[in-house]
Please model this.
Amino acid sequence: MRLRDLIRKFAISMKSMSLLLLICFAFLAASSLPAFALEVIAHQAQTQSTAKHLTVRELRAIYSLRLKQWPNGLPITVVALSNDSILHNDFCKKILRVFPHQLKLGWDRVTFSGLGRPPIIAKNKDEMYEIIKNTPGAIGYIDQINKNSESSVIPVLLDGK
Model:
């Protein structure tokens, strides 16, 4: 009987330990998320096209000025914040996975070679929202979108990496 009781206690303690370990992993995973979520937003004129769902690769092509028009033929207007903006830095590093200065070098190369237009640089996130709201084909990013507002700005869902 004694051996059986020891085995039973050991099994119970192993279950408790595995549950504790699972809780620790869940906490670590949650704490590694960014402090705030970035949302990619676009003008609603793209709702007939694939702009509601973009891959990170497509978004990177848009922000590197290689993808110049939406599938429906509407030209893409890239809107960004200045390089010294924390939100821009987070967008570049966490979403596009490039450094802001690398993105700017690419913009300069495309612009100075005459192959494309530079992005519109907004002073702040409110100005970015207004530019996107008033510019068909525009795309940008903010830290939070007002879901209740009825406007021409829609969130873009990112598929895959």
The beta strands are 39-43, 53-55, 77-81, 120-122, 138-142, 153-159. Helices lie at 2-31, 56-63, 86-96, 100-112, 125-134. The longest helix spans residues 2-31. The chain has five helices and six strands.
